[in-house]
Amino acid sequence: MHRLSRQFNLKSQNQEAELIHYLSSFISETRRAKFDEVLKYRTRHFTLVLEDLYQPHNASAVLRSCDIFGIQDIHIIENKNAYTVNKDIAMGSPKWLNLYKYRKEENNSLSCINNLKQKGYRVIATSPNEQVTTIDELPIDKPLALFFGTELTGISETVMEHADEFVKIPMYGFTESFNISVSAALCMRSLIERLHKSGIDWHLREYEKSELLLKWLRNSIRKVEMIERDFMSKKNAG
């Protein structure tokens, strides 16, 4: 959550809309139009979960792909390895996304799984097993959480035990697996393409769009704390 959300208590949706309108005057019309266009394609129907990634290059590339494909939420499990971002690879994508980290429990993977299942997500784990479903055949009618682990060890036993389904990406060469960032991008490409062609209601709700728009505006404006403080002072005085 942005620190300004804690500092200023917006009393109503109308006040939030007024603040969005006010902050929008501090960015170009082109950039504001870009925000609206991107929001049309944002979704929480799919989410990605990254378990113990330790290579900043891969971690950053996945975030960049999530932004490009319109996946808003990324869950990050830190059992052994801290998640770090290479800014040159991420290209600023983290500020457009919602990142949720799990690192305070004895078994952070299980904590993440339980949280996502409570929200209605099916846990999907990747596997090279020939008997599992391919990513192109995976049903998408219900919200999906795709789990990815490290290239060396893959996903943990905890994820394997609690997964609702296993999927694979078809491969026809000698190499046993894709780079993790490539795997994530291929999966997202397949799922998002099918989602957009489906009749599933995958779009964000209007209140979710407003929350994100406010977040993006705050991340785009210099000295936004001072500007928002001025706005709130005027509102309170009125």
Quick summary of this structure?
The protein has 238 residues and is an alpha/beta fold.
Helical fraction equals 40-55%
Basic shape: elongated
Could you say which structural class the secondary elements and strand pairing correspond to?
alpha/beta
Please state the CA-atom Rg, rounded to the nearest Å. 20 Å
Q: How are the strands of the largest sheet arranged?
A: 3-2-1-6-4-7-5
Beta strands, count: 7
Major sheet summary line = 7 strands, parallel
Q: Just name the CATH architecture of one domain.
A: 3-Layer(aba) Sandwich
What CATH first level of one domain would be assigned? Alpha Beta
Total helical segments: 10
- Strand-residue fraction? 5-15%
Q: Helix and strand succession?
A: HHHEHEHEHEEEHEHHH
The N- to C-terminal Cα distance equals: 28 Å
Q: CATH homologous superfamily name of one domain? A: SPOUT methyltransferase, trefoil knot domain
CATH topology call of one domain:
Alpha/beta knot
- Average pLDDT taken over every residue: 87
Q: Uncertain runs with pLDDT below 50, 5 residues or more?
A: 1-7
Highlighted features:
10 helices; 238 residues; disordered N terminus; 7-stranded parallel beta sheet; alpha/beta; Alpha/beta knot
Mind explaining what this structure looks like?
The protein has 238 residues and is α/β, with parallel strands linked by helices. The protein has a domain at 44-202: Alpha/beta knot, CATH 3.40.1280. 47% of the residues lie in helices and 13% in strands. It has ten helices and seven strands. The chain has a seven-stranded parallel beta sheet, with helices on both faces. Helix 4 links the parallel strand 1 and strand 2. Helix 2 (13-24) packs parallel to helix 9 (206-220) and helix 4 (56-69) packs parallel to helix 8 (180-197). The two termini are 28 Å apart. The model is unreliable at 1-7 (pLDDT under 50).
